Write the structure tokens for this entry.
Amino acid sequence: MPRRLLLILSVVGLSRFGVPARAQTQGPYKVHVESNQLQAPIRAESNMVLVPVFVFDRAAMGRVTPAEWQCEGAESSAFNRLLPSQAYMPEDCSHAEVHGLTMRDFRVLEGGVEQKIQQIAVEGCWVAARDNMTWHEETSVTPTGIWSSIDLFGVLRPDVVRRFYNLAYAPAERGPGCHPIAVSVDRPGTVLYARDQYCTGQSMSDPLYATNYGNRLGSDLASRKNGKIRLSVQASYFYTDEGRVRLEVAIEFPWKSMFHQWDPTTGSLYARIGVLGMVYREDASLAARFSDLLYPSYWPTFVQGGQVAPALLAAESDHGADGQQPNLSERVVGALSGKDPGWLPTRYETQIGLSPGEYDLQIVVSDTQKFGAAEVPLHIDNYDGRALGLSSVMLCKRFRDAHVAAVERAAANFAPQYMPLVSKNIEVTPSGDTHVKKGQLLIPYFEIYEPLLTNAPATAVQAHFRIIEAKNGNTRDDFMVDAQSFEQPGRTMIPIEREILTDKMPRGAYRLEVQATDSAGNSTPWRTAEFTVE
């Protein structure tokens, strides 16, 4: 998210507040590779401890050279000229980041004991995602979690590339609780920011487990209160090739209500936005959980660059009638606050693995000052892969070129385990809020599973759509869609996205119903999804 603002103030170091973890941007990483350095994403969901590390050149922090500023302007212009079919692969404009480090340059100590670094990956911090709306920033901390900003066209420009090193080590067996981590780098004149603790039981998809903040979120959830942050949640499930279930969770919330503060002396942001999801079985036992944190305390949030300079210069030169200088801090904070839309998220999505069954999904989102909670009942049918099958339906409003999205994410090592929803090279984005404005596109996404496609390729598959008015049960629309054009060679899974126009729909609540049938006479149960036209 656009974070580079020129500070006339003296910036002597980085705030220990938080910045988006790995919302990976943009571009091929020009990093010197040694035999012991891995640039591939660290994917194993094992006992590996990941330690994100930012390394900066102390002398280059707090200033921007003319060459950097010219590079950023050129990148912004190039971004605005891109076609939707062209990937955004920007140059690296920053001179403050230290590149080319390898495992031999780092030391990691846990509880004072040196650990063997087993892997290292170079990852970006933000991705500028373009879709049918305009463009927004995406941030990722965990392997499948993605935070998204509001649409930023005409508000901000894409951020410069910023990267970090992700170190991985396998900790020795130890007791419960949290254990201190210390990281150092063998590079004179640098400033380093890194994760400072590991708690037994944490995983890459649950980094808040056993932490104070994670426990606080758990208490908020257990209070059974709705909280003060309004949440909209949608959850849908899809079957994997391994016979398990992938649950897609999308959450939306008002970004303007998220607590945050700017520090005018360092140009740093304080904001800490966490999410916790708990999936309970019918017997109240815990089946799965996930957590995520945007802006953990060890991520730098200094802002450096150019748009705030006019306000600062004016504050320095403008004296009132009494000859007194206006409040510089207020002027700086006002300028920095103009960047809030790019810093504060409004959406979150993630994916978790489950088995068929009856569940209760409970979610809480917090900004440390207040929270919001939501509850979603889940019924996941058993599917053995031997007959015609159908996933549930995920409602979406956004879509983009799937190839472009894949290229940009791969270049940035962005959310490496996230499985995008793709049909006919169109990637759709799940919506937490299923209210649509009259005339806005509604895009249902679902998957049909047809094992006959492998041993009886001539089998014809259709998707049956019905749109029902909730207030009276009347059928608004009823039509069939031939699934052949959505089929994928050699696969039995048929991903389908179908745009539904709402311009002629009266305002009100609706229920979308979908069923799959084939030419062998098989049919699936109906799947439903509810939406509202405003």
The chain is about 10% helix and 35% strand.
